[in-house]
Write a structure and sequence with these properties.
seven-stranded antiparallel sheet; mainly beta; about 325 residues; about 5% helix; Jelly Rolls; binds manganese (II) ion; eight-stranded antiparallel sheet
Length: about 325
Amino acid sequence: MSDLSPSPAAEPGVSAPSSRPALEALPGRLSDLLGLPIRRLLPRAGRRLVGPWCFLDSYGPLGFISGKPMDVAPHPHIGLQTVSWLLEGEVVHNDSLGFRGAGGPGVLNLMTAGLGIAHSEETPSANSGRLRGLQLWVALPEAHRGTPPSFEQHRDLPVLALDGGSVTIVMGSLSDRRSPGRAFSPMVGADVAIGAGRRLQLPLDPEWEHALVPLGGRARAEGQDLAIETLYYLGTGRREIVLEAPDEPARLLLIGGAPFGETVLMWWNFVARSSDEILAAREDWETGRRFGTVAAYAGERLAAPPFVARPVTRP
Ligand code: MN
């Protein structure tokens, strides 16, 4: 997806891990894309990064009988990976390298932008009439952000069976399971399912920071009911968190990773380090350089919004 309502100036994303365990609720900020409800869960004031995860939108659920609720025209990315994870329905990815990725529930579409790539995302004409998903971005560390662009699709992700439920490893690693998705820093992105009336001990790396987003059912942590579509920042220093689904199956997203340790500069669909770098990427997109063409998309590409290169105050 594209950040459709960027602020005119870049926002610094500071890695600010809590030094201890936390359970801090950050409700999603609701917006709307032509009738498709979108909740922005990252970045938020006070929480810009969780490990290398720098962006998280949850969209839908939506039922539709015609049209294309997802129709994001070609747009550029730099300095990040897009992690697309669908809970219901279908989205087709096309990019400037010529990759086409038809995605659905359980399928990881992973695009590494590196120096620059362009892509589009659309609801296919053959669809289930349902749409719900998660769009995440991973910031690439300094040592790897110049990597050539690439696209991967993974349909057979590892599942960690635990007493009380199971965990699908979407990105990075959890316990002894590792996603085949190419990762450039230590991280986890996982889809956690808890059985009705069950209790699950979710293993965590105490050196990492983590967050949970309840996606369905009713889940509890540390005696507290967790709200759907809310990001719960867990801090660091946890070897596990005990989750319960008291009366119905529950589903949660887990994200986390080693504290990123670098301050990123985010604007529109770019993750950079300086305003000059953003200006250059914007200019290259506007003049048709660097990012190539998404030949498979029938229609106009997105124009870059105005950018104000104001001085960035770094804490
Ligand atoms: Mn995108």
